[in-house]
Amino acid sequence: MANEGMPDGENRQHGIDATGIDAEEWAELMVNLEATIPAYDKVNTIVTLGQDARWRRHVQSFATAGMDVLEVGCGPGTFSEGLVGVNLTCLDPSREMLAVAKKRVNAGRKARKEEDAIYVEATAESIPLQDNSFDRVFCLFSFRDFHDKKAGLTEILRVLKPGGRLVICDAGKGRFPHGLMGRIWMGTVVQLVARMVTKDPNHPWKWLAK
Ligand SMILES: C[S@@+](CC[C@H](N)C(=O)[O-])C[C@H]1O[C@@H](n2cnc3c(N)ncnc32)[C@H](O)[C@@H]1O
Hints:
Strand content: 15-25%
Strand order of the largest sheet: 3-2-1-4-5
CATH architecture: 3-Layer(aba) Sandwich
CATH class: Alpha Beta
Radius of gyration: 17 Å
Helix content: 40-55%
Distance between the termini: 23 Å
Largest sheet: 5 strands, parallel
CATH superfamily: Vaccinia Virus protein VP39
Order of helices and strands: HHHHEEHEEHEHHH
Structural class: alpha/beta
Bound molecules: S-adenosylmethionine
Number of strands: 5
């Protein structure tokens, strides 16, 4: 990890928490993430003012036709459905997320006469796939959810082919004001939008704001 060897406090200041999440919190996180599924895309699009689609397209541009590609933490398939012409594997620990992704991603692939993607129910920390298998590994808005980031990165490196690349797209805390603005945005605008979209005062973004 980039922050290895830094004093403890430093680990938490740069980019993203470097270590992980404890088992109990991670289980709670997964319940809340699954609860976002019906409103996931709509809330993301509104709270990023439409920028999420641009970020995804940018990450997609790191893959070219014919590549072996793995998305780690594919969620409901929002990113993977836009990957064209690649041999695709989608991995997520949530069966529910994978079921939604499978429908959505395979529909697009079928229309383009591409083979179905492969769907793997697993975590980044324990990837049941062979060494040196992928030209690209993509991680969008899921790296922050790894319960053990060092183990996840080690596994990703293992499955990447020599010269392959990992591309992570996530929200970090680059500087103190950046982190503060993020917390304010998450605690206000995101809460309001999630409540309006879900029409539920106990929507999952309430917990996720933590
Ligand atoms: C916010 S969603 C991101 C979905 C998608 N990548 C996107 O671009 O919108 C985060 C996903 O990470 C998954 N996740 C959580 N912990 C994970 C872990 N340890 N390893 C792999 N994926 C994980 C969750 O199940 C969830 O589907």
